[in-house]
Every structure is written in C-alpha cells, then in structure tokens.
Specification:
With 285 residues, this protein is α/β, with parallel strands linked by helices. The chain has ten helices and seven strands. It binds zinc ion (2 copies).
Length: 285
C-alpha cells in the first residue's frame, strides 16, 4: 500500500516542534495528498494548517488526540472531523483547565505530607498570570531549598511514578467517543499496543468500544510490528472499523520519525469521508 495520507501529526499547538504551516509544507514536500493535525487535547493548530493548505494540493483534516482514562496502559483517542467543529475547542480547553485546577492542590497536599512547607498561594505568586502547573511548584521547591534544581524537583517528586505525582484527570473512553461523535467526527483508537492488553483482551475491548461508536483502529504506525498490523486489521474486519494510520510525527523530540513514515492510501481515507457523510445524514434526519 502506498502512503498517501498521514493521519497522525503533532504541531507546536501541543508537544510538536513545528508550526502547523511548517507541517503542511513538510507534508507537501513529501508528496502527501492528505494529512491530519492531531494535537494532544487541542485543535488550536488546525486553523493555521487549513490556511496554509488553502492553495496547495494537499488536504488538511481537522483532528485531535484525546487522552482517555485507562489502566494499566495509555489510551489515546483520535478524532477526525470534516471541518473545525463548533464549540469543540472550548470543551477541550475547559476540560484541561479543570483537570489542572484539581490536580495542583493534590500535588501540594502530597508535598505537605512529605514534610515540605509549600502553599498554593506561594505557587500562585510564582506563576503570576501563567497557566499554573508543575514547573511553578518546582520553582517554589527550589526557592525554599528543598531541591537544588528544577530537574531534581521533577526527578525526586513531581515526575510520573514519583511520590508527589498526581495523574491528570481524563475522560472515560465512552465520553471521548461521544464528544467526538456529537461534533460530527469519527473516533479512532490510537496505537492500540499502548493499552498493554493481550490480544484476546484487546479483541473484546475493541468490540465493546465499537458498540459505543468507535469507528476506526490505528493500524499503520511506525512502532507496529507486522504481527500487530495483522491483528489490528483482523480486529477492524471483525467490527467493521476503518484501518487508519499515521506517523505520530512530533519533530525533533521524536527524531527518527518523519512525516509520512506511516499512513494510509487515499482509498482508505475515502472510507472516513463516507463515515462523515453518514454521520451528517444522521444528524440532519
Ligand atoms: Zn498517542
Ligand atoms: Zn500522537
């Protein structure tokens, strides 16, 4: 299968290095016919990408990659839309802010329990008008002499797996599907191996998600083995899902991966266009 569309790309709107316009130029230079911008929990980069693609021979698909609540592994849900959905960005942003707002006091509590004297007020003072987060907490720890560097604050206390780490609250899978679907998009399970389920559990789990409205499974992905691609194709067939794919390009932070390293043909992309039409018809009927 020739790779004509890369449906998994990050920009500076989340944790990628390139601006949305640079991503579009890069994709054009790779000869791609379509790309999807899928930043983490935001669609704020999509507008610029659409503009950059306006007079070019490339289609930009508005997308998002939502972090979903799941144990033991990590669950990311991709959403693909025929246009920038009304109100979606507000919901995503509000969700992020709320989960951060609830998370920060919990982190401070944990640090207090570990014997460190640090208050929310002190952190707020450091953050000023910026979005308050872990770097500001680290700064207070540093200024109070509990650590000798920001790095140490993360390594000892704040990083994942450390004693003051608190998980960000995430949407339950069914809610993420509903959020995407109710805004005219189609929901796709990203890089299924990160769920850390064995093959038969994954089969059952995806079957359940399909009943809740999941429409696709990301099958073509740089880290997927031949065996995994085969498995995901079978699971897609069993549940009537589209097999999507993409590079998960981030830029320098994932150095070895380029735009177009994984993806799908336009034939498969057509299936997504069909699903959009079906979804639109369902909404208007
Ligand atoms: Zn992901
Ligand atoms: Zn990603």
């Amino acid at each position: 299968m020739s790779i004509e569309a890369d449906l998994h790309i990050h920009t500076r709107a989340s944790d990628g290095d390139l601006s949305p316009s640079d991503v579009v130029s890069r994709a054009i230079s790779k000869g791609l016919k379509a790309i999807a911008i899928t930043d983490h929990d935001t669609m704020s980069g999509v507008k610029e990408a659409l503009k950059a693609a306006q007079h070019a021979r490339i289609k930009v698909i508005p997308g998002v990659e939502i972090s979903v609540e799941f144990e033991p592994g990590e669950f990311h849900m991709l959403g693909y839309f025929p246009f920038i959905p009304d109100g979606m960005e507000d919901i995503l942003e509000k969700g992020q802010q709320e989960s951060r707002a609830r998370r920060n006091p919990k982190i401070i509590d944990r640090l207090n329990n570990l014997g460190m004297d640090i208050t929310m007020e002190e952190v707020k003072e450091v953050a000023g008008s910026a979005q308050l987060g872990r770097p500001h907490i680290a700064q207070v720890l540093l200024s109070k002499g509990y650590v000798r560097s920001m790095r140490e604050a993360f390594d000892r206390f704040l990083a994942k797996g450390r004693p003051a780490y608190v998980n960000r609250e995430k949407l339950p899978p069914a809610r993420a599907i509903e959020l995407i679907t109710s805004h005219g998009g189609i929901a796709v399970l990203a890089h299924p191996f990160t769920l850390e389920l064995d093959d038969s559990d994954l089969r059952d789990y995806v079957k359940g998600l399909s009943k809740k409205g999941l429409k696709g499974i990301e099958t073509y992905y740089p880290e997927h083995t031949k065996g995994q691609v085969e498995l995901y194709r079978n699971i897609a067939r069993e549940n009537g899902l589209v097999t999507t794919g993409g590079s998960d390009f981030h830029g320098k932070s994932k150095n070895q991966i380029s735009i177009g390293d994984a993806g799908i043909s336009m034939n498969i992309l057509e299936q997504i266009f069909n699903l959009w039409e079906i979804a639109a018809a369902e909404v208007s009927s």
